[in-house]
Write a structure and sequence with these properties.
Elements: E1 3-5, E2 12-14, E3 16-19, H1 30-33, H2 38-51, E4 55-57, H3 66-74, E5 83-88, H4 103-117, E6 122-127, H5 136-148, E7 152-158, H6 162-175, E8 182-186, H7 198-205, E9 208-212, H8 236-239, H9 248-265, H10 269-278, E10 283-288, H11 293-300, H12 309-319, H13 328-332, H14 334-338
Parallel strand pairs: 3-4, 3-10, 4-5, 5-6, 6-7, 7-8, 8-9, 9-10
Antiparallel strand pairs: 1-2
Amino acid sequence: MEYRRLGASGLMVPALSFGAGTFGGRGPLFGAWGTTDAREARRLVDICLDAGITMFDTADVYSGGASEEVLGEAIKGRRDQVLVSTKTSLPTGDGPGDAGSSRSRLITACEEALRRLGTDHIDLFQLHAFDAGTPVEEVLATLDTLVRAGKVRYVGVSNFSGWQVMKSLAAAERNGHPRYAAHQVYYSLLGRDYEWELMPLALDQGLGAIVWSPLGWGRLTGRIRRGAPLPTDSRLHRTADYGPPVTEEHLYGVVDALDEIAAETGRAVPQIALNWLLRRPTVSSVIIGARDERQLRQNLGAVGWSLTPEQMARLDAASHRPAPYPYFPYERQEGFARLNPPLFAAPGRAA
């Protein structure tokens, strides 16, 4: 396993990390993802550690906290071998204190996560969403308190816009609070919006991207083909509306390119999609999930080899979408692109 720095921080993380969204399996969304219990989870953690995957990602909203509980059971007795990443801020109940990033909510959420995980510290504590109702200074001061207390080692965010990240980083620097080391983002061959604003920001400010749903919300598993119906057991029947949208034309164009390269390399479609991501700028770790041992072992095959530059270029072309304003001039006009290397220097962007 390759290990990379998490952005500009000193924390080394594996290029692949494991997402525990399938642990617990409660509710309409997470129940469709998977129903892994503690025994099964411990086996998956065994396989991950054998392969060098040492970071495990979860959140308090995953199966109403059950994901954290199952992960805690699975890593019991080997906490010193793993990095635990969890998230908070999204609503966990209907009460006024059950959502957001206020001082009260963050302290309570951290304490409850520590209890469910059965640990005394969280290696990476992330805000799952931006809370527009709480001043960023209050958020950062609270995170600073948790870091100083030894309950949190590093802090990060997820699903923030560019201005929200930058406003937070500026406030952290101004007040001497911990800077965000990571941004957990959606990024895949089916969704490259991350490249337009958040990737340049990450390059400039030293944020490491931790990628969620790298297989396009389950669409790049190799089971979806042009002209064929969606498999009857696909979780997309129940979860498609929760995830990022994609047109059929775009989906099948990417799948066709993946199938061609799979035939050339002898690699599985998911392995190729993951390998492409691992070569993108700012990516520190790509989160893989698995409902069973077979899926996990297949995804582990994404490391230890590289696509050729020509294959990367073909995937870039198949997955490319027109840029929105104010970015399209930098993509289409040489004068704009010359002012902003390297992201806009080539049609494939961020190559």
